[in-house]
Design a protein that fits this description.
The protein is built from 2 helices and no strands.
Length: 68
């Protein structure tokens, strides 16, 4: 049996420079210094969790396999 990997939607966003600076500051304060797409995934999952809307999203399930 083969494992299948579900690939989500590619979303492109334009952020104001101040948001990019804040994102980069957050990334650089993380122990593993994630790249921008991974940082956005993590922050999105944390925000959804804080709002009670991430029942199907677990931080451990996020991966960057489609970012290369």
């Amino acid at each position: 049996m083969t494992d299948t990997v579900e690939i989500g939607a590619r979303i492109s966003v334009n952020l104001p420079a101040r948001y990019v600076a804040a994102l980069d500051a957050w990334r650089n304060n993380q122990p593993d210094a994630p790249d921008r797409p991974e940082a956005l995934r993590r922050l999105t999952a944390m925000a959804l969790d804080a709002l009670g809307g991430s029942d199907t999203i677990a931080l451990g399930e996020l991966n960057a396999s489609n970012d290369k």
